[in-house]
Amino acid sequence: MGKKRVLLPASEVDVTAVKYTPQRIQGPHLTGFWLKLFVMLAEAPIIGSMIMILFKNKNRETEMLKNTVIPEDPMFKPEFPPQESEPAVVCLEEDGKPEERVELALQCLPDYNPGCIQIADSSAPFRYWKIRDYAYAYRSKLTTPSQVAEHFISAIEEFNNKNPLTPLLISYDPGEVRSQAAASTQRFKEGSELSILDGIFMAVKDDIDCCPHPSKGGTTWFHEVHEVKKDAVCVSRLQSCGAVLVGKTNMHELGLGTTGNNANFGTTRNPHAPDRYTGGSSSGSAAIVASGLCSAALGTDGGGSIRIPSSLCGVVGLKTTYGRTDMKGLLYRGGTVAIVGSITATVEDAILVYAAILGSSPAERVSLKPALPCLPNLTSCESWYAVGSLRLGKYTEWFNDVFSTEISDKCEDILNRLSEKHGCETIEVVIPELPEMRTAHIVSVGSEALSGLNPDFEDGKSARLTYDTRINLALFRTFTASDYVAAQCLRRRLMYYHMEIFKKVDIIVTPTTGMTAPIISPSALKVGETNLHVSGNLMRFVLAGNLLGFPAISVPVGYDKQGLPIGMQLIGRPWCEASILRLAAAIEETCAGPKKKPVQFYDILKGNQL
């Protein structure tokens, strides 16, 4: 029996006396035979419980949850106090049509320069085509959505013929893509396009319903118990804007992993380095955008699953405030940590897609009372001054807790440039109890995932899951009701600490991940792997966005010496997506430097593999 620990109320904690503890998850790195053996032991009735108790003791989970008196009441889902309004914004109507919101978002963007689309100079710096580039090409009759569809289909065929398998899409119908593209082409011919998103190629993560595709959640069997009868709300909103939805992207099975490894369908490779992971769990969504094949993809984020792969693949990943987007039509819609969001090549594309998919569910409007959604008005002079007025919070010891100092150095350089070019002030902050946040998150997401999956495990389907998923589920089964309640008490404490910080700053800045893309072990391709050290490095900075529901965005800021992308994370106050989008746009425009062309990149606008 451990010694009882009694915490002071969060309001009485002296944050100046808080000492940072480097975060290291204790656990084995296993693959191949040893992974299979460990799963067999972990699932054994008595031995398995002993193994998981040892693991939880090593990582202080028992101490935090069972041996600690937590004075706060539980907070079973994020609760947000009212926030100050953001400057230089355009407010949107949640009940309005998605295409009307997208039109307002378009008016918030700087003037469009079509000159670069005409340039054929191969020596010109690399850039991703933006959504507005495609729209200009369609309207100027330089190409059509149908022509782009043929380029896309040819590229996907090439990906699908790779050995070993590295699929971006695990449900895909070329005929369906051609049909959607033909309808869009006809609308452009008639001058009746639905929005700037008409004819824009987008993909959907495999845990989001999108007819006529099954939703498998990266498994081999989930579609047997989950019938897709209609599109998810976020998907239907994109369709009303005319987007061409190309299929369902590969993912880490059931979203319960951070690398993107999937032994069921093959592991998606990082377009910048095919021997490395994309990050997960929205692995295929990030890779298909980074490869140039889609302008945007939908992902879900319950533990960094949008931001981690976006960072590792060098693209933009937006996690909205909890409750900002309707979760109806997702495999996990009853939890308190996950959201649906976007992965895009650029920040301005993130703004356009966000405008299309936002809108809380009726129930969440009652319980959460969301503020009106707003976008940064990037066309006004006031917007320039609004960037400079942003106060940025940095917890230096946490910021520097990375696998390679190249990451923290690059992010520090961005902060210096923001100060020099925009006058942004960086303020030192302290965030207490970060290890407790990790524990509260794993108990919350694990218990909620298991609750949703339990009904489908009665007939032995859990044995058809990958080995690393089964290890996670074995751990989740050891969480008790009292563990879950204790985790929610910790959630309230951590919310207090962060809201106190947000009285002094507008945005908390961190690296997105504590490491760049990890190498794929060859033996992991067949049976998967578990590597908690890698998971800890990848998830170190992302958990506040999930446990506490804050909006956050990962924006590319450069590369390490191996040419691997580095992302910087901006965590905003509740409902303040406009502020993090504004700062992300400033970083992309004036601070991040030139982009590097991925090793695997397709120019489907012009029909070339570069």
TrEMBL record:
Q: Which GO terms describe its cellular component?
A: membrane
Q: Which residues form a coiled coil?
A: none
**A molecular function GO annotation:** N-(long-chain-acyl)ethanolamine deacylase activity
**Which keywords annotate this record?**
Hydrolase, Membrane, Transmembrane, Transmembrane helix
Alphabetized InterPro entries for the sequence: Amidase (IPR000120), Amidase_CS (IPR020556), Amidase_dom (IPR023631), AS_sf (IPR036928)
Any keyword Cell membrane?
A: no
The answer, when asked if Transferase is one of the entry's keywords, is no
Gene Ontology process terms (BP): N-acylethanolamine metabolic process
Per the similarity annotation, which family is this? Belongs to the amidase family.
Q: What name does this protein carry?
A: Fatty acid amide hydrolase
Species name for this entry?
Nicotiana attenuata (Coyote tobacco)
What gene name does this entry carry?
A: FAAH_4
